[in-house]
Every structure is written in structure tokens, then in C-alpha cells.
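Quick one:
INPUT:
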């Protein structure tokens, strides 16, 4: 018997719905919220209003694209947290209503676990052909990477997003242990906050990535954290970036426009170096050479490049998700829902979203 899961994601500023059948992705629709660009960051109140407007059309389109009708859905998986409370409430309420009206189980998903399980997404083509490891052998600029199939257990996952930076040991689809994490800002936050200082639009991560391509990564140096163990810290880098910029601007008010590419390249180089140092140490300590990356920052070209260089030096096998599945999306929630369904891990109608997990 086949299992069809409707996945719902609304933790931040993207409203997304996806349909997964037997672990294969049939559709994944995302409505981005452009309104936040005007404010240089996500405005929670505006995000929840936009989710409210988007959720029904997004689910409707995802189901049409998948060619499924509501009676064919076996369970609804939704993001319970972490995220913005108002945003989470929209997806949670929708999922509860859908499940209740159809008399089907509800499955709560941890957004971060979803990012990791994006590494296990497989797509079904329109004519029903099952595509194994689609996109996974390539980086987004179509260069072959050292990736081969889905990660095998146990593997280390560097989860880098706008809200989180963690190193996890993934022992099974649903069994993960955090062995290192940021004690302050996340890596994506470092990109976004420093980008804001440079006058770049939100989210600045992808813009910095693009501008850095023609910049000198060694033009400027910024302070690096001295945090013991496998934990990260990015707040010192942010301050160091800000102070360095302020000093340069005193001497030359046009410093930013004259050096934008190299400022981006140097900042990106420092962030990637900080991320890679602890990941290398985690691999040494655990002896695990199977490495995955996940979360929005996993789209960063310098991070992917550094990972592939390290892979050939250390004999790692690296797994980089397809670009569309690194950022927030419901496909990753649906695939997590699929594995939870197989284990019978369902949630009651009294479930409430949680901002922190
Ligand atoms: O995973 P995600 O979509 O949302 C969260 O759960 O936070 O991650 C968004 C973060 C933002 O901080 C964004 O600037 C960053 O991912 N990001 C990037 C790139 N693409 C997205 N950072 C660096 N380089 C990129 N190419
Ligand atoms: Zn996310």
C-alpha cells in the first residue's frame, strides 16, 4: 500500500506545501514573501499575515501539481518549531484542520531535522519514473561533486541556516545528536547582519556569495572566535567587521563601494573558514568521514568548494542537497513525515507550535 504525505512548512517567511508518495517527491511549492525586503529582515507580524493569505493557494497548487486529491492523503506533516510563533501557528492550524476534516493522522516535524533529511529527498518524474539521487551528484553550477547517493549512517551534518548552526551526528533518519552549536549568532545571521551594514538587501547571504566571486578573499582580515570544543560563535566576527568598516569609512567615505567585492569575499572566506575548522575537528574526533551539509547557507558556493577540497584531502564523502532543498521548503518536512509515519509517530490534535525546541 502506498503512503502519501502532505508536508506543510511555515516557520519563517516562506509558505510551502509538498506532496511525498512512498518517499518520492511529487511536488514542492514555495511562496516567498517579498514584503520583508523593504525592512531589511523578517517582520513577524507581516510574515504571519502573508502565510494566512498564501497557505490555501500553495497547498492547492502543490496537490494539483502532484495530481492527488485530498482523499488520497494519508497524513499531514507540519513544522511544529523552531520558528516564529505567529508563522508556525498558521501552518499548524491548517495542518490540524486538514487532518481533522479528513480523519487522518497529524505528524509534527522539527524544522531542523527536516533540513537534515532534505539529504534523503528523491523526486518522481511526471511520467512516474523514480529518480534516484536526483541532483545530488552535481553542485548547482553543474560541476560533478564528490557526492555519491544518499548519506549512509552514521554521518556528520553541518546544519547552517539563518537561525541555526550545528554539527550533528546522524545515526538514523530520526536519531540525531547535536555535538556542537553556536553560542550566539548563526552563520546565516552573520551573512545577513554584515550584509545589512554594507547596505545589501535581505537576505544578504546569496548576494554576498555572488559579489564575492570577483573579490579578493584575503584583502581584509577579521577576528576569529576562540571557543573550546565543537561550538561556534559569530557575534565577535560581526563586531570586528563593523569596527573595521567604521575605521575605513572615517578615512574614505566611499570605502564600501570601492571595495564591495573584496569585503564580501573576505567576510565569506572568514565565515567558511570558521565553519570548516570545527567540522574538520568533529570528523577527527568521531572518526566519521561521511559528511553532509544542510540549511540555507549550504547553498554558499565557497562553503561547497571548501567542503569538496577537504573531501579530497581527507577522504571524506560529502553530500550537498540540491539548491531548491537547502532553503526552507515543505519537501523536507514531508520526507521527515514519511519516516515518522513508518514508525507510527503521530501527534494529537492538542499539539501547539513551539518557537524554540
Ligand atoms: O534555511 P533557511 O532558508 O532559513 C532558516 O531556517 O533560517 O536559511 C536562510 C539563510 C539566510 O541567512 C540566507 O542569507 C542564507 O541562508 N543563505 C546564504 C546563501 N543562500 C541563502 N548564505 C550564504 N550564501 C548563500 N548562497
Ligand atoms: Zn530553515
Amino acid at each position: 500500500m502506498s503512503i502519501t504525505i502532505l508536508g506543510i512548512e511555515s516557520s519563517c517567511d516562506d509558505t510551502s506545501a509538498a506532496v511525498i508518495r512512498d518517499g518520492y517527491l511529487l511536488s514542492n511549492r514555495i511562496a516567498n514573501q517579498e514584503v520583508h525586503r523593504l525592512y531589511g529582515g523578517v517582520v513577524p507580524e507581516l510574515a504571519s499575515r502573508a502565510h494566512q493569505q498564501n497557505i490555501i493557494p500553495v497547498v492547492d497548487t502543490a496537490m494539483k501539481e502532484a495530481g492527488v486529491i485530498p482523499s488520497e492523503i494519508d497524513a499531514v506533516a507540519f513544522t511544529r518549531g523552531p520558528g516564529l510563533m505567529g508563522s508556525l501557528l498558521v501552518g499548524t492550524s491548517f495542518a490540524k484542520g486538514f487532518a481533522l476534516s479528513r480523519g487522518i493522522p497529524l505528524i509534527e516535524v522539527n524544522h531542523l531535522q527536516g533540513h537534515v533529511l532534505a539529504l534523503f529527498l528523491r523526486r518522481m518524474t511526471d511520467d512516474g519514473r523514480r529518480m534516484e539521487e536526483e541532483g545530488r551528484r552535481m553542485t548547482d553550477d553543474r560541476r560533478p561533486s564528490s557526492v555519491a547517493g544518499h548519506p549512509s549512517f552514521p554521518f556528520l551534518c553541518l546544519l547552517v541556516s539563518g537561525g541555526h548552526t550545528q554539527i550533528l551526528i546522524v545515526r538514523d533518519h530520526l536519531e540525531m545528536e547535536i555535538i556542537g552549536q553556536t553560542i550566539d549568532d548563526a552563520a546565516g545571521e552573520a551573512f545577513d547582519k554584515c550584509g545589512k551594514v554594507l547596505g545589501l538587501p535581505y537576505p544578504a547571504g546569496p548576494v554576498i556569495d555572488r559579489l564575492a566571486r570577483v573579490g579578493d578573499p584575503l584583502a581584509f582580515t577579521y577576528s576569529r572566535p576562540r571557543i573550546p570544543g565543537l561550538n561556534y560563535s559569530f557575534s565577535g566576527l560581526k563586531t570586528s567587521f563593523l569596527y573595521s568598516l567604521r575605521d575605513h569609512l572615517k578615512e574614505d567615505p566611499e570605502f564600501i563601494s570601492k571595495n564591495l567585492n573584496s569585503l564580501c569575499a573576505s567576510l565569506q572566506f572568514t565565515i567558511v573558514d570558521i565553519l570548516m575548522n570545527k567540522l574538520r575537528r568533529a570528523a577527527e574526533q568521531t572518526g566519521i568521514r561521511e559528511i553532509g551539509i544542510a540549511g540555507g547557507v549550504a547553498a554558499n558556493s565557497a562553503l561547497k568548494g571548501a567542503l569538496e577540497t577537504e573531501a579530497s584531502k581527507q577522504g571524506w564523502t560529502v553530500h550537498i542537497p540540491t539548491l531548491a532543498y537547502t532553503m526552507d521548503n515543505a519537501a523536507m518536512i514531508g520526507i521527515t513525515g514519511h519516516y515518522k509515519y513508518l514508525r507510527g509517530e503521530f501527534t494529537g490534535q492538542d499539539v501547539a507550535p513551539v518557537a524554540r525546541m
